[in-house]
Amino acid sequence: MNGADNRTTLMLTYAMLGIAAFITLFPIALMLLNSFKAAPEVIRDPLALPQTIRWDNYTRAWADGSFSSAFLNSAILTVVTIVLVCTSGSMTAYVLARKKIKSWRLVTAYLLATTTAPIQLFLFPLYFGFARLGLIDNVFAVALIYCAIFSPFSIMLLRTYFLAIPKELEEAALVDGATHWQVFTKVMLPIVWPGILTVALIVGLYTWNEFLIATTFLQGQGSMTAIVSFFLFSGQYTTDWGQLMAGATLVVLPVVALFLFLQRRFIEGMTGGSVKG
Questions:
Q1: Interatomic CA distance for residues 86 and 121, integer angstroms
Q2: pLDDT average, residue stretch 43-56
Q3: Alpha helices (runs of H) in the chain, residue ranges in sequence order
Q4: Partner of 93 for a Cys bridge, out of 159, 188, 228, 251, CB 3.0 to 4.6 A?
Q5: Among residues 86, 115, 50, which one has the least CA distance to residue 195?
Q6: Of 149, 160, 145, which is closest to residue 116 (Cα–Cα)?
Q7: Which residues contact 111 (CB under 8 A, 6 or more apart)?
Q8: What are phi and psi of 133, to 5 degrees?
Q9: Orientation angle between helical segments 139-164 and 67-98, nearest 10 degrees
Q10: CB environment 235-249: b (16+ within 10 A), e (fewer)
Q11: CA trace torsion 203, 267, 31, 217 (10° rounding)
């Protein structure tokens, strides 16, 4: 009886996972399918196979959407944000995990409050300050905003990794003559590397796809990110659905490929950071 119940539970689990996977992947598959069609084919039957594969949809989308500079800006913005968040977040999480701070509850409340506060509350003062400082259309300045947004999450997650490391390991390194900086860089960072990789992946995905801040602070043609260029591209070429789907595929493809390549590390990192402290 127990064996039959286990098989039934397993079948229901796989069925639910299959339905969830279909719901998740169907829009992506539909977008990819229609990216190879001419506009009349997409309008006539979006679910049909293309009569002729239109590879030129991708070349025209790349040229008309100015994706060469936009992709470069998105890549620079994403890499700089990841470096800033992982660097500052790992050092802050290490200090909060190892040093006994009496006001830790206040720090936790502050970090949680910053993660729940909507960014719309800060857009006007941020834009006013950036405009006065001449930082509009500056990719590196926008990376500082993303760093401030994603740092609380990264600190809370990485702190759980540092708490899981036995203190005896740190004390042994100090006894052997290592400095606190050497303990952090040579002992701690290699152990919490899965957590840092998880933070980097999450921050990278959100930064690449973020629209509100990017379209507010990066308005110049030479500083737009890929998602902003696609937004303007879609408004200009709304009738050519095949070209529009090709542009969407170009924007989505890098993050999908990155996640598929690092999904195992991502899952390991999320489960490894589930230790309470």
A1: 25
A2: 86
A3: 2-34, 39-44, 56-64, 67-98, 104-116, 120-133, 139-164, 167-175, 180-182, 189-191, 193-209, 212-217, 226-236, 241-272
A4: 159
A5: 86
A6: 149
A7: 152, 155, 156
A8: -90, 0
A9: 40
A10: eebeebbbbbbbbbb
A11: -10
Quote the pLDDT of residue 46: 84
| Token reading at 140 | 């590196």
State the residue for tokens 């509009």.
136
Tokens of 194: 């899965």
Residue 66 carries which side chain, given as an amino acid letter? S
60-96 residues labelled b (16+ CB within 10 A) or e (exposed): bbbeebbbeebbebbbebbebbbebbbeebbebbbeb
Residue where the block lists tokens 């042994």: 172
- Distance between alpha carbon 47 and the CA centroid of its chain, in Å? 30
Any idea which residue has 């049909």 for tokens? 48
With 70 as the cut, is the pLDDT of residue 271 above it? no
Q: Which structure tokens are listed for 190?
A: 């290699």
**Any idea of the CA torsion for 31, 35, 39, 41, to the nearest 10 degrees?**
-80
Average pLDDT over residues 108-136: 84
DSSP codes, 27-54: HHHHHHHHTTS-HHHHHH-TTSPPSS--
Contact 58, 75 (CB under 8 A): no
The whole-angstrom separation of Cα 60 and Cα 38 is: 12
Residue 176 CA to residue 7 CA, distance in Å, equals: 55
pLDDT at 272: 55
Helix axes 139-164, 193-209, angle to 10 degrees: 150
Between 41 and 240, where is the model more confident? 41
